[in-house]
Each structure stands twice: as structure tokens, then as C-alpha cells.
Amino acid sequence: MQAVIQPDLVSTIIPVYNRPKMVRRAVASVLAQTYRPIEILLVDDGSTDATPEVLAELQTAHPEEIRVIRQANAGAGPARETGRLQAHGAYIQYLDSDDYLLPNKFTDQVAALKAHPECAIAYGTSRLETAAGQVLDPASRRTDEAIASLFPLLLLERWWHTHTPLFRRWISDAAGPWPSYRPEDWDLEARMGALRPQLIHCGTTVSVQVDHDSPNRVTRGAEAAFLRDEAIFLPRLHACALLAGMDRQVPELALFSRWCFLRARQLDAIGEGALADGLLALARYSGSADPPGSAAWQLPAYQSLRRLLGPRTVGSLAALHHPRHPQVASG
Questions:
Q1: Are the beta carbons of 172 and 87 closer than 8 angstroms?
Q2: In degrees rounded to 5, what are phi and psi of residue 91?
Q3: How many Cβ atoms are within 10 Å of 176's Cβ, its own excluded?
């Protein structure tokens, strides 16, 4: 059952799995917001260490603002979905347990949305830090730029972090559930983009991405699993871009075609020929405007060799450990 929505309330959803230390800072950063009212939904995704005890302690200390929800381990996407379904806020904030917000975030972004009722998403600048607090980039990715819509740029890169935007409840709900496969956040935002929401930059720095070693980061998991997930994700991303009204002549689409072609070759190399088939077809369709000599125009030759030598043999000629995508940005 959908939760009853409370006007002005900001619901922060924090999935957590085996991070008893880092989650304390994430929660503290939400409690330190200059804005009220707030609620924090801590979704324990089947932690096996001291995390449940830490979450219970936090809830006991702040019972009016913190709720703990425990579920069997299912991944970050399903954990966020559990939180979304139980959130009461008119505004939705997603925050990973290893990152944190700056105290002005909700004040600035709610004010921006109220000043711009035509906008569904407010965002600000996010900075990148090491775990020790050293600033690596004061304006991470493209979060300091005023970008009016998610597409066409979202077709190539996730140009903010999960914690950067603040969503009106309607866009979060209308986009539908979080998926279980990765990149789950990019997939959700693509579905938001298909609804053509307008964005507003609040003009301030609002959150911090912490760079640290973790297998939970989308760019650091198992290569084969990542490629299989992208075979699901890329057609969905393309469909959302078209639903958003993207012109088929934009340069981003030609680059997207090359991305699909690369992934198809890598899938062939690991014996996933059926998945590669779909991406080769998508590369051909989306690359119709690509200039001669580009990767998309190599498709006929590749497919001829594929029929002659077999997908796995030809695919192995591609660099399987090529960087997953020069602009992959998740988390």
C-alpha cells in the first residue's frame, strides 16, 4: 500500500549493507539539515555484521525521524524501492550509506522547486572527496552546470551522483520501481527522462561523493555480470531517450551506437552471443546517422566475420577489459 504523502516532508532513503561505520556519517548529515520536516528510512539489505545494531541505535536516538526496515539481501535497487514504497515525503532524496549531504541541501533545493513549480527535479553541485576528506574535485562530473533536461546527455553519461538531485514525489513514483540489475540508478533516471521533466540548479554545493574501494560500486563489480546487465539496460536507455523526444541526429546517438557495438563484441567474447545479437541490432539502428569510418560502419564487416568464424572467436579479438565506458558514472 502506498504511504500517505505529507506536504513539505523530505524523505531520505538510505540502503545499507555491512557498513556500520560509514552509515553513521550519512545519517548524521541528514539530521544536520537546516530544513525540516524530514524523515530517514534506513533499509538494511540483509547485513551480516554489526550494521543492524548500529541502525537500531540510531533509531532509538531519533525515533521521530528515523525508521529502520530490514529485508533479505537483494541489492541496492530493491532496497531503495522498499524505502520508496514506505516513504511519506512530498520530496524524495536518495543517499548511499557511504556518501553524505551538506547541511544546506534540502533548504536550497526545496526552495528552488517552490520557486519553479514547472520543475520536477532540483540539483546542486556535488564534490568528490577521498575517505580521508581530501577534495579531489570541487565540482564532480557536471554537477556545477545548469542543464535543463536529462536527455540527450543522459544517453552517454550519468552526469550527477545518486545523492545530487532532490525529486518531487510525483516524478519518483511515475518513473516506476527500482530495478534489481545495474546500473539501477541510471535506469530509473532514464525513465524519469522519458517523462520530460524540467530541471533546476539551486546554485550551491549540496552533497559529497566519497571515493573509496568498494565492490558495491557499479564500476568495480564482476565484468561479466556488468556486461549482461548492460545488455538489458542499453535498449531501455535508448527507448527512454526517444520517448523524451530526442532528435535522432544528435551527436550523442552516434556515440551511443559505438557503445552498443563495443558491448556486443565484449559479450561475444564471453559466450553471450544471444545478448550480443540484440546490441548489434541496436548499434545498427541507433548509428544510422554515424559518419562513414566510425565504429557503427564497421558492423557489416564484423557480422560477416561473426558468421564465418563464430561470435566467440571474433568477439575475443576485442579487448574484453576495455574500460566499461569512458563516461560511465554511477553511484
A1: no
A2: -130, 145
A3: 12
pLDDT number for residue 329: 47
Cα separation of 256 and 170, whole Å?
29
Rg value, the chain, Cα: 21
Q: How confident is the model at residue 218 (pLDDT cuts 50, 70, 90)?
A: very low
Over 60: is that where the pLDDT of 226 sits? Answer: yes
**DSSP codes, 265-324:** HHHHHTT-HHHHHHHHHHHHHHTTTSPTTSGGGGHHHHHHHHHHH-HHHHHTTS-TTS-S
Q: What is the pLDDT of residue 205?
A: 98
Spell out where 48-134 has E strands: 66-71, 89-94, 100-101, 119-130
CB atoms within 10 A of CB 72: 7
CA distance to 172, 200, 231, per residue, from 39 (Å): 17, 23, 36
DSSP-derived secondary structure letter, 117:
T
Q: Band of the pLDDT at 288, cuts 50, 70, 90?
A: low
Specify the pLDDT at position 212: 81
pLDDT over 80 (residue 281): yes
**Domains within the chain, CATH numbers bracketed:** 6-217 (3.90.550.10), 222-315 (no CATH)
Question: 310 CB contacts (<8 Å, ≥6 apart)?
Answer: none
Residue 280: name the closest of 315, 326, 329 by CA. Answer: 315
Name the burial class of residue 143, with classes exposed (0-12), middle (13-18) and buried (19+) by CB atoms within 10 angstroms of its CB: buried
pLDDT of residue 71: 96
Task: Give pLDDT, residue 213.
Answer: 72
Who wins on pLDDT, 247 or 26?
26
DSSP at 244: T
* Residues 42/14, Cβ–Cβ less than 8 Å: yes
